[in-house]
Amino acid sequence: MSLIKVNDPLESTAKFLLASISEVTASLSCLVIEREKFIQFGCFIYRASPIIMELQATEDAPRKAAEILQSISQKVDIAKDLVSKCQTSQSIVSDPELKLIISQLEEVTSQIGEDLSMIPPSTFEGQKYAAVAFRSLSKEMRHVNFQITQEKVQAEQERGVENIQEQNEQARAGTDLYSSNVGTSLTNSMPLSASDSGEPFQSSGGSSMKPPSMNINTTENRFSHQFIEPMYRSFYCPLSKKIMDDPVTVQTGITYERKAIQDWLDKFEDSAPVFCPATGKKLTSRVLETNMALKTTIEEWKDRNELGRIKMARAALSLASSSSMILEAIKDLQEICERKVYSKVQVCNTGMLPLLVKLLAFKDRGVRTALLDLLRQLAEDDNDSKEMVAGIMDLSVLVRLLSSSHQPTRCAALLLLLELSKTQQIRESIGSISGAILVLITNKYNCTDSFASEKADEILMNLESHPNNVKLMAENGHVEPLLKHLTEGSNEMKQEMAMYLGEICLHHDNQTYVSERAVSSLVTMVQSDDDLTRTAGYKALARISTHHPNSKVMFEAGIIPLLTEEIFNHQISDGMNSSKAEAASILANIISSGLDLDLVKANAQGHTMVSDYIVYNIVHMLKSSAPKLNISLLKILLSMTKFEKSMATIVSVLKEGQGSYALIELINNPEEELSLEAIKLLQTLSSFMGHMISESICKTSGLPENLIRIIPSTINQVTEKDAISAKFLAELPHQNLTLNVAIINKGLVPDVLHKIEKAQQVGTRSSKYGNTYLEGLVGILVRLTTTLYDPQILTLAMDYNFTAVFTDLLTKTSSHEVRRLSANGLENLSVQSVNLSKPPQVKEPSFKKVFSMPKSLSFRSSRRRKMRVPICHVHRGTCSSKSTFCLIEAKAVEGLLSCLHNENAKVVEAALSALYTLLDDKVDVEMSLNLLNGVDLVQHVLNVVKDHREESVLQNSFSIIEKFLARDSRITNSPTSVISQDKMLHVALVSALHRGDEAMKQVAERILRHLNRMPHDSIPELTTATYTYTRF
Fold first, then answer.
1. Cα-flanking dihedrals φ and ψ of residue 838, to 5°?
2. Nearest to 397, CA basis, from 420, 424, 423
C-alpha cells in the first residue's frame, strides 16, 4: 500500500497505520489454523487504534510521536506477511513452520507493546479512562504468550470453505475480543471524565476519545460509561449529552439525537427563525437527515463492547455495595437487552440470572422493582427464556411481592408473573404455590389500583388453562372460570368442573349466582346416558342444593321429576347407586327449604310430593336401601312431616305395615348419621304414635339401652346423636309403663344418675349439645315419676332419693328446661307424700317388775312417759325426702321459690304447680299455709302476677292466692292486706274476668268478691270449694 502524501508526517503515518490495521484484521477472517491466536493478535492491534487516533488528533503530541507510529507500522507490516503465509490459498503449513510463525507473531506483538509504552502518559491528560486502557494494553502486549495447541493442522485445512464460514460466524458470536485482565483492571477504575467546556463540537472533525461536556453524576454512571473500547466524542449528542441511538444531521452539519433536536425545533414557531444549538448559526431548513455512517459506527461500537459491559455489570452486582451501584448496573443491562434478542442470551449465558434472583432480597424497594423489570425483559420473546427464569427463581418470592405495599414493586411483580404465566408448564407451578391464587384474586378486586387489577385478571385468565387452578380460583371466591368451563367446555372439561363444584365450599355471596349459572347445564348432564357425566352432574347439584335459596332455581329448572325418576325407577347397581343416593340427597335438601309440597309435581303422572304414592315408595325403600340412600330418604320423610297431609300418610303407612319396626331397627345401625336421622323422625312421629313406638322399642333387641349406654362417659364428648337419643327417650309418652319398666329392668337409672352428676360437676357449656343431653337425662327420671303407682318404680325412686336429686338440680343448673323438668318431677313426687306419710306408732316401754318398791321410794314419775317421734304436720305423719318425697323435709321449697323469679314462664308455671301440692285438700292446709306464709310465698306470687301475662301462670297464681284468702282468719300474720293493696293483682284479676277462659273467670270472680271488689250475694262456701291447678 502506498503512503498518502500529506503535509503533516504524523497524520500521514497515523492514517497509513490505521489502514494497515484494518487490512490485517480483515484478513484474519479467512484463517483456519490456530485461529484463536491470530484473532487474539487482531484484538490487540484493534484496541491500539483509538490510541493512534488520539495521537493523530491531539494538538500537543509528543516529539517522537511520528517515530513511534512509524515503528509500529513496520511491525504491523511484518505481521501482515506472517498472516498471509497462513491463508487458505497458500500451500499447507507444516507444524514446525506454524510454530515459527506463531513465535514471530508473538515477538511482533511484544515489540508493538514496547513502542506503545514509549508514549508519555501526559498525552492522555484529563482522560483517566484512556490512560488506564493505554497502560493495560501496553502491558498485555509486552507480556503476550501465544502457545500452539495440539491440533491437527492438516485436518483443519481440509474442512473446506463451508466449514470455514460456519467457524467464522461462531467465532464472531462466542469469542471474547477483550482480555479478562483488562476487564478486571477496569472494574476499579474511575469513570470517564467530562469536560466542563461549553463550546460546540463538530462531528465531522477528527475523532477524539474525550466526550462532550456532560453534567452527569459520576456514581450513577460508573458502569454505564465504562467500556473496554473507549467511546468517541462524535457518539454524543450535544443536546442530550448521551450516546445517540438515532443520529440526524441538520443544515449546519452538526449531528444530534433525533428526539433531542426535534424537541429543540418544536420550541420555535413555523415562521420564527431557527438556530443551530451548537453553532448558533441560522437554519434555513428544518430537514433532518439520518447520519447512517455514524449510526452504523455507534451500533458496531455497541456490539463490540456489549459483552464487556455485561461483565462489568455483573461485577457491580456481585459487589452490591450500594443501591446506586446496583441500579446503574441494572439500567445498563436493560439498555443492552433492549438492543436485540441475542443480547438477552448473552446476559443469561454469563450466569447473571442467579445473581439477579439473589438480589431480590435487597432491602431497597427501588432495586427490587428494577430487578423485576429486568427479569421480565429476559423472560420475553420465547418459552425457553421464561422457563429459564422460572427455573432459577423461587416463584413463591414473586408471589409474596404481589402483596407489597410499594405499588411500583407490586406492579413490576405482576408484570413479571404475567410474562411467566404465558407458558403452560409455569402456569401449573404458579397455581401450586400456597396462596398464589388468593393473592391474585385479591389484586383483581382491588378497586384502588386499576393497573394491578387489570394485570392480575390477565394472569388469572392465563392460569385458567390448568383445571386445578380453576378449582383453586373457585375455592377463593373467583367462580367465573369454573362456570365458563362448565357451560362452554368439552364433555371431559364439564365433567371435571362439575366434580370440582361438588367438592368445594362456596361463599354465601356466590351460592345463588353459581346456581343461576350452572343448574341448567347440570340438569342437562344428569339426563346423559354416560354414567360419569350423570354422576358428576348429581354431585354438583347436591352441593348447590345445600344452600336453601337455590331450591327455587332448581325447582324452576324442572329437576324434581328427574330426581324421583332416578330414585324410584332406576334399578340399583354399582354404577347407579351413587347417582340414586345423590338424587335423594338433592330432593331432601329441596324439600327441607320450605317449598309447598302440595304444589310440587313429583312425576309425569301428576303425583305431588305429599301423595300416598311417594310416601309409600319411600317407606318401602327404607327396608332394602344402602345406608347413604336411607339417610336421604329419612330426611325427605322428616321434611314431609311439616305438612299435615303427608304426616297423616306417613303415620298411616307406619301403623299399617311393619314400617315402624324397620324404622326403629335403624337406631341400632352402626352408621351414626343414619341412626341419628331415624331417631329424629321417630321423635317427630311420637306425638302421633308415641305408645306404638314405645312398645316397639321394648320389643327391639338392644333397646332402649342403646339410647343411653352409647352415650360417652364425659360431657365434653357428647355428640348430636347422644343428645337427641336421650331427649327422644325422655319425650316418649310418660305414662307408658312398659317403657318405664324396661328402663328400670335394663339398669339404666344408675347410668343416668351418674351422667347427671358428671354434668353438674364439669358443666355443660363446654359441649355444643351438653344442655340438650342433660335435659334428656333429667327428662328420663321425670318420666318415671309419672308411674309411681308401680311398686318397682316407687321403690327405685325411694332408693335413689329422686327428691334430693331434683332439689339439687333446681339450684345448681342454669338450664331453664332442666329447672322446669326438676319442678315437674318434684310435683309428681309430692303428690305421693300424703299416701306415703303414716302416723307414728308409739310402743309402750315394757319393764319387768323383779321387785316392787314403795311409791314414796320410787324415782319414776307416776305418769308414764311416751317416746317422742318427729312428724310432718303438713302430711300428718312421719316424713322424709327419701321415703315419702316430702318437699319440706327435702328443703325443696326454697329452690321452688327461687324458680318463681325465672324469666321463663314454663319454669315459673312448673314451680307454682309443685308448691300447690302443699295446699292440696288432703294435707293439713292450715299448717301448710302458715309454713308458706313464713317464707313469704304470697309476695313471691304477687311478683309473678306482676311479671308474667301467660294464662297458665296466672291461673296457678290465682289458685294459691285464693287458698290464702279462704283461710285468712286461721293464718298468723295474714297476708290479706298485702294482697288487697297490690294494684297489679287487681288489674290482672279484672283482665282475667273480661278475657280469660271459664275457669280463669271463676277464680278471678271469687278473689274479687273476697276482697270486697264485687258483691258477696252469691259467694259460695270457700271452705267447700274445689280448687284446681294446672298439672304437668
1. -120, 145
2. 420
Comparing 141-150, 652-661, 703-712, the range with the smallest average pLDDT is 141-150
Residue 200: the pLDDT is: 33
DSSP letter, residue 7: S
Task: Return the closest-CA partner of residue 24 out of 83, 89, 74.
Answer: 83
**Residue 170 one-letter amino acid:** Q
Q: In the structure grid, which three cell numbers stand for residue 49, read together?
A: 487504534
Highest mean pLDDT among 453-457, 551-555, 719-723: 453-457
- Under DSSP, the state recorded for 1009 is H
Q: Which three cell numbers stand for residue 151?
A: 491440533
Q: What is the DSSP letter of 359?
A: G
Higher confidence at residue 4 or residue 815?
815
Compute φ and ψ for 954, nearest 5 degrees: -65, -40
Global confidence as pTM: 0.63
pLDDT value at residue 416 = 95
CA–CA dist 370, 368 (Å, integer) = 5
Rounded to an integer, the average pLDDT of 545-569 is 88
Residues 915-955 pLDDT 10s: 999 998 888 888 999 999 999 999 999 999 999 999 999 99
Give the pairing of strands 255-257 and 289-290. Answer: unpaired
- Give the integer Cα–Cα distance in Å for 283 and 40: 48
| Rg of the Cα atoms in the chain | 54
Cβ-based neighbours of 757, under 8 Å, separated by 6 or more? none
Output phi, psi for 813, to 5 deg: -125, 150
Which residues have a Cβ under 8 Å from the Cβ of 191 and sit 6 or more positions away? Answer: 129, 218, 221, 222, 225, 226
Question: Is the pLDDT assigned to residue 192 strictly greater than 50?
Answer: no
DSSP letters along 930-967, please? HHHHHTTHHHHHHHHHHH---HHHHHHHHHHHHHHHHT
β-strand pairing of 282-283 with 255-257:
unpaired
Backbone angles phi, psi at 256, to 5 degrees: -130, 165
What is d(CA 20, CA 45) in angstroms, rounded to the nearest whole number? 10
Spell out where 853-1004 has E strands: none
The DSSP secondary structure of 704-746, one letter per residue, reads: TTHHHHTS-SSGGG--HHHHHHHHHHHHS-TT-HHHHHHHHHT
Give dist(CA 664, CA 656) in Å, integer: 15
> Distance between CA 247 and CA 301 in Å, rounded?
14
Asked if 639 and 589 count as a contact pair (C-beta separation under 8 A), the reply is no
In this predicted model, what pLDDT tens digit does every residue of 759-774 receive, in sequence order? 888 776 667 888 899 9
End-to-end CA distance of the chain: 133
d(CA 240, CA 39): 37
Q: For the chain, give me the number of helices (H) and strands (E)?
A: 50, 5
How confident is the prediction for the chain on average, in pLDDT?
81
Looking at the predicted structure, is the pLDDT value of residue 444 above 70?
yes
**Would you say residue 632 has pLDDT above 50?**
yes
